[in-house]
Amino acid sequence: MATSERSIDIARREGARTRARLADELRRARRSAGLSQTAAGAPCGVCLAGVVGLDFAIRTFPAADALREAGHARLLGRFRQRLHPNVRWRTEVPLPIPGDRRAWDGLIEGHDRRQPVEAETVIADAQATERKLSLKLRDGGFDDVILVVADTPKYREALAAAPAAFSRLDTPPRDRLAALGAARDPRGSGIVLL
Questions:
Q1: Could you report the per-residue pLDDT of 40-97, keeping only the tens digit for each?
Q2: What gap in Å lies between CA 194 and CA 176, rounded to an integer?
């Protein structure tokens, strides 16, 4: 009988790999700077990275969650159904940065252009979502994005209450859906409620 690995065991193993990788990067940088452990650690306590010329950053990525993924897939499926049949649709399109685990939820290809799509079933923090989109646009090499959001009274109220949120997503949702359904260029970034 096959046994499934517990999440805690996976997390411990990943934590050990991360600590080992960080220690190796710090050791190599310290040695290339010609510093002993004492000399490198003395001025900064635990922040060795800055002394040897490295920026210290830790990033997290969401793990697969079957419930979240199912709702996310349904939302993207509803969006895909609204696209013209001649529009090419791809999902989980990675950003063009080696080692970066981020991906666009979808990519529309047609009308002589490509446009990424992000879907959100839950927006707990509008600023964080907007920041995430801006960083992905910058790193992904795109100027425009379509944000697909679950059409619920809660999100309609949230978007109405924060008009400055997502200010760069300015195309009205109905105009955007009509353009995509007719295989026309939707022009610019925008939000689609479905």
A1: 766 655 566 666 677 766 665 555 555 557 888 899 999 999 998 888 999 999 999 9
A2: 12
pLDDT of residue 95: 93
* Span(s) in the chain for CATH 3.40.1350: 66-193
- Angstrom distance (rounded) from CA 71 to CA 93: 19
- 127 half-sphere exposure, CB direction, 13 A CA radius: 0
List the strands of the sheet with 190-193, edge to edge: 88-94, 103-110, 113-120, 146-149, 190-193
Show contacts of 78-82: CB within 8 Å, 24+ apart.
78/194, 79/106, 79/117, 79/119, 79/148, 79/192, 79/194, 80/106, 82/177, 82/180, 82/181, 82/192, 82/194
Candidates 43, 63, 65; CA nearest to 52 is 43
The verdict on domain 66-193 having CATH code 3.40.1350 is: yes
What integer is the mean pLDDT of 134-148?
91
Those residues with Cβ within 8 angstroms of residue 131's Cβ, 6 or more apart along the chain or in another chain: none
Tokens of 47: 């922040």
